[in-house]
Specification:
By secondary structure, the protein is of the alpha/beta class. It has one domain: TIM Barrel. The chain is built from 13 helices and 14 strands. The strands form four sheets. A five-stranded mixed beta sheet has the order 1-2-12-13-14, sandwiched between helices. A four-stranded parallel beta sheet has the order 6-9-10-11. Strand 13 and strand 14 form a beta hairpin. The relative contact order is 0.16.
């Protein structure tokens, strides 16, 4: 029997220990491995239906399983957009046929994510995990308030990509030192935090469960910290890349282009502080695969988005836990416990990692069709050996 350490809340430890007694899960010639409750990512782009050349439900969920995930929430910027029962069902049918882990789809907030008319939130609530116009901020204040009221009435979360279009001005990286030094158009921090401030006021007014996607600025952290103190029902996420990199790490390559962009060192430090003090509840990848062609056009012309499912835990473990910033238990809280608790997603498996050995990130080895990662050639500790979903192996090394 392989000795396996279990890092999990007490209510899950016994169940994981029992499952580890299954011979199928004890095939490794390793002195010590570590088991966790399987991870849950509430912000993943699976690109299907509509954009299967970027990713498919099959390849995206295989990629997730290799990263230790057994549950992901799929974002709605698809074709067709899941803005009606018929369009959401098209995605659900593909999930049932092709997913190797559990997938919980978002529905959009507005028709075709255009911001002009609300979807039928009441009807879509039975099959949507939450509502989001991810990739676009809802610009109209009254429309967002109405969406929040309907979501509140149906017990659903509004998960917002916060971005004021009028402040973007054609920017594509952070409006900081790198942009100035290299002649790039910048995205100001206010484009993010101004809309977060508006939404927090609306969330306080409506009482909705409000979740802020991929925060990247120090002002966003401060606003959400204060809103929590004021009793607003708000949670938020950030991605591993925002906690590890800043605009000082940028290179002239599309694998460093995402939205929101990598911000300043001070923003990164504020995000880390937000993780430590509990302001930031969830680490989510915003896994956003594109074709090689779409990501090979430099910072200005490449598509926004990087992949992250296969590196999320190891990147976070290496830069947050091994450095002593947070405990391993805290990382499990951020990746496995909090996302399930907030989005009402069941616990459904476990994952086993070797934390003592490292690997060099090589995108050509990814199971995802997307290969663009700012972590390319970086060295991370934490190698996934096995992921099990409902008692069945979905990935093993």
């Amino acid at each position: 029997m392989v000795k396996t350490n279990i890092i999990a809340p007490d209510f899950l430890k016994g169940e994981i220990a029992t499952q580890l007694e299954n011979p199928a899960f004890s095939l490794y010639n390793k002195e010590t491995l570590t088991a966790f409750p399987s991870f849950c990512d509430v912000h993943v782009h699976l690109r299907e239906p509509g954009f299967s050349y970027k990713e498919t439900i099959k390849t995206g969920t295989l990629s997730a399983s290799r990263g230790g995930f057994t549950s992901v929430c799929s974002m709605p910027n698809l074709n067709p957009v899941p803005d009606s029962e018929e369009n959401l069902q098209a995605q659900l049918d593909l999930i049932k046929e092709n997913a190797v882990i559990s997938v919980y789809p978002y529905a959009s907030i507005t028709l075709k994510e255009k911001g002009d008319e609300l979807v039928d939130i009441s009807t879509l609530s039975k099959n949507a995990v939450a509502f989001s116009d991810d990739g676009r901020g809802v610009q109209d204040d009254k429309m967002m308030e109405d969406a929040m009221l309907l979501a509140k009435a149906n017990g659903k979360i509004i998960a917002a990509h916060c971005e004021v279009n009028a402040l973007l001005k054609g920017g594509y990286i952070h409006d900081g030192e790198y942009a100035k030094a290299h002649g790039h158009r910048g995205i100001c921090s206010e484009s993010e935090y101004a809309q977060i401030e508006r939404d927090l006021n609306l969330a306080k007014k409506t009482g909705v469960k409000y979740h802020v996607c991929h925060i990247s600025t120090k002002e966003s952290v401060s606003l959400i910290r204060q809103a929590k103190k004021d009793g607003v029902d708000v949670t938020c996420e950030t991605g591993p890349h925002y906690l590890i990199l800043s605009d000082s790490d940028l290179q002239e390559h599309g694998r460093f282009k995402m939205n929101p962009p990598l911000r300043s060192v001070k923003d990164k430090e504020a995000l880390i502080e937000g993780v430590v003090d509990g302001t930031i509840d969830i680490i989510a990848t915003d896994h956003a695969p594109h074709s090689q062609e779409e990501k090979s056009k430099g910072l200005e012309k490449s598509a926004f988005g990087v992949v992250g499912l296969e590196t999320s835990f190891s990147a976070s473990y290496t830069h947050l836990v091994k450095t002593g910033i947070i405990s391993l238990e805290k990382l499990v809280q951020l990746m496995a416990i909090n996302p399930r608790e907030r989005f009402n997603i069941p616990y459904n498996g476990f994952t086993v990692f070797d934390l003592e050995n490292s690997y060099t990130v090589n995108p050509s080895d990814f199971l995802s069709l997307g290969k663009a990662t700012p972590f390319e050639n970086m060295n991370f500790y934490g190698i996934c050996y096995l992921t099990a979903l409902n008692g069945k192996v979905v990935y093993k090394i």
